[in-house]
């Protein structure tokens, strides 16, 4: 390429079928891709403008923007997978669109329609197609954001909003098992709060207990309900399931549990397998005699819990081959990557 200008060389690289990435080294961290999607909410028209694909890069914000000052913002997370035949599949993107709408309502923000959301996700993935890992070697993680970007000194909803979608290739986050520590002082969510939506303010308040648990060798914390401190809720970024006999239980998503799309999918798959699926309050005592415990989320999909430690008492669970978690993981990732038949119509082919 010696005689080509820098710009021509860059264009040549971008035409390559795959970006120059060591796919097998990918973890869950940002690898910058070429493009992002941006759409703004126009106050006068009362709707979102025609969005556009722009170069991925830093954005400019007024120091008094709603997102910076008062945390008026939401995020979403979903993945695009490459099939064996190179086709690209999204997994249940309308569910993320609906969840963003629900969250926007709670946070007093306008939200893109389901069509606008899905269209933005598609355009972002297609513009960054060369960053979608080869089949079986990871996925393109897509991060939609909705934020108050208008100036906003007074305590009130922002006057302008931005919907932005960016993406990053990520590896399979499923490796290894989880060792959870039950957190009985800090609560993730409170009734009437925002724990049931993907508010940008949900994670930083749990960094402290999470960091402390990690320093002790745990992978995550397991939160208890704020009202009674006696029922399990979820991890810092994942839902939890317990298996006993033919019954799979998960805490009911009634405001303090994030209604995970993986959670919902796992419940549907498990009942298809013949399990009785229950959404209910789960007292911490029930984890002591569970046969198997696993967590779910877009990043990890399904991951076995090897142990749970509560007030110094450690309980261990079955992990590895022939666990239900393994079977559910194989089934779900099979559907997501187009290897298994998608009987429930969860995937969306994009081109
Ligand atoms: C996003 C999230 C989950 C998982 O939701 P998925 O839709 O399955 O990715 C679980 N818990 C919390 C707190 C979350 O923010």
From TrEMBL:
Root EC class: transferase
PTM annotation (N6-(pyridoxal phosphate)lysine): residues: 198
Cofactor(s) needed: pyridoxal 5'-phosphate
Entry-linked PANTHER family: AMINO ACID AMINOTRANSFERASE, BRANCHED-CHAIN-AMINO-ACID AMINOTRANSFERASE 7-RELATED
Chain segments annotated as transmembrane: none
Catalytic activity: L-valine + 2-oxoglutarate = 3-methyl-2-oxobutanoate + L-glutamate; L-isoleucine + 2-oxoglutarate = (S)-3-methyl-2-oxopentanoate + L-glutamate; L-leucine + 2-oxoglutarate = 4-methyl-2-oxopentanoate + L-glutamate
Family: Belongs to the class-IV pyridoxal-phosphate-dependent aminotransferase family.
Gene3D superfamilies documented for this protein: 3.30.470.10, D-amino Acid Aminotransferase, subunit A, domain 2 (3.20.10.10)
BP GO annotations: amino acid biosynthetic process; branched-chain amino acid biosynthetic process
Protein name per Swiss-Prot or TrEMBL: Branched-chain-amino-acid aminotransferase
EC number annotated for this UniProt entry: 2.6.1.42
A single GO cellular-component term on record: cytoplasm
One annotated GO molecular function: branched-chain-amino-acid transaminase activity
Keyword terms: Amino-acid biosynthesis, Aminotransferase, Branched-chain amino acid biosynthesis, Pyridoxal phosphate, Transferase
Record Pfam families: Aminotran_4
């Amino acid at each position: 390429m010696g005689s080509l200008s820098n710009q021509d060389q860059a264009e040549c690289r971008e035409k390559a079928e795959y970006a120059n990435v060591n796919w097998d080294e990918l973890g869950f961290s940002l690898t910058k891709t070429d493009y992002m999607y941006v759409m703004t909410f126009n106050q006068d028209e009362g709707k979102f403008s025609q969005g556009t694909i722009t170069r991925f890069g830093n954005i400019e914000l007024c120091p008094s923007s709603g997102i910076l000052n008062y945390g008026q913002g939401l995020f979403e997370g979903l993945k695009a997978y490459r099939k064996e035949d190179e086709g690209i599949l999204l997994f249940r993107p309308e569910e993320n669109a609906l969840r963003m709408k629900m969250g926007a309502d709670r946070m007093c923000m306008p939200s893109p329609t389901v069509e606008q959301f899905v269209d933005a996700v598609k355009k972002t993935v297609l513009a960054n197609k060369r960053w979608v890992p080869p089949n079986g070697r990871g996925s393109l993680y897509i991060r939609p954001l909705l934020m108050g970007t208008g100036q906003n000194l007074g305590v009130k909803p922002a006057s302008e909003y931005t919907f932005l979608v960016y993406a990053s290739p990520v590896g399979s986050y499923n490796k290894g098992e989880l060792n959870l520590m039950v957190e009985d002082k800090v609560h993730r969510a409170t009734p009437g709060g925002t724990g049931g939506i993907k508010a940008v303010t949900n994670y930083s308040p749990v960094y402290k207990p999470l960091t402390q648990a990690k320093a002790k060798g745990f992978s995550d914390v397991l939160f208890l309900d704020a009202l009674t401190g006696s029922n399990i809720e979820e991890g810092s970024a994942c839902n939890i399931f317990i298996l006993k006999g033919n019954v799979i239980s998960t805490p009911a998503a009634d405001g303090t549990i994030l209604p995970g799309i993986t959670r919902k999918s796992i419940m549907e798959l498990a009942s298809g397998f013949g399990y009785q699926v229950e959404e209910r309050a789960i007292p911490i005592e029930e984890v002591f005699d569970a046969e198997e415990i696993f967590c779910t989320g877009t990043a990890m999909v399904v991951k076995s819990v090897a142990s749970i430690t509560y007030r110094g008492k450690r309980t261990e669970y079955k992990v590895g081959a022939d666990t239900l978690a393994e079977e559910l993981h194989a089934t779900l990732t099979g559907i997501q990557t187009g290897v298994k038949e998608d009987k429930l119509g969860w995937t969306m082919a994009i081109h």
